[in-house]
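User: I'm writing a tutorial on reading structure tokens. Could you give me a worked example: one chain, its sequence, then its tokens, then a sentence or two explaining what the tokens reveal?
Assistant: Sure. Here is the example chain.
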Amino acid sequence: MNHSEAENHMLSVPALDMYYGGHMDSNASQAAMAATERRLYALPIIRERIEDNREELTELENCGVEALRHHSASLVRLIRPGMRLTPEEVHSAQMAELRARLAADEREVRKMQHALRSIGEDPYYLTIELKYFDNVKDADAALRLRCDPATVRRNRRRLVRRLALRLYGVECI
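And here are its predicted structure tokens:
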């Protein structure tokens, strides 16, 4: 077996199955595509949530323990029956939880931005923005791009597949 035959063998589905110990099938690919679409739809909402959480964190930092009066609903998650915490400890725990949520959301936005940059030069990139961020129907996107709605759907699906590969790797082949 020469080098190129070995490379082709290494990239075959059976070889990948053997190496990764799983069954690579269309279900995994479809699941990765669906998860990618959910992440795309969620991205604008997560960006808004980041701004909201930043405002809340600023308020907690600036107002100190007094801010607890305005955020008492979120204390339920922090305080368990029998716990005895000082207001300062509750305030600190609340800020730590908020910072953790903010960091997770920011990490998701960064991952998605990197993945989106990888397809940003594609002539049909706009199909992603129109569908997932602006809720534009395929027919309207087709008018804007001067093509057929089937072309919009086909190219958007191709781009989502590339995003899924970027986000989930070999699992979605």
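What the tokens reveal: Residues 26-63 form the longest helix (38 residues). DSSP finds eight helices and no strands in the chain.
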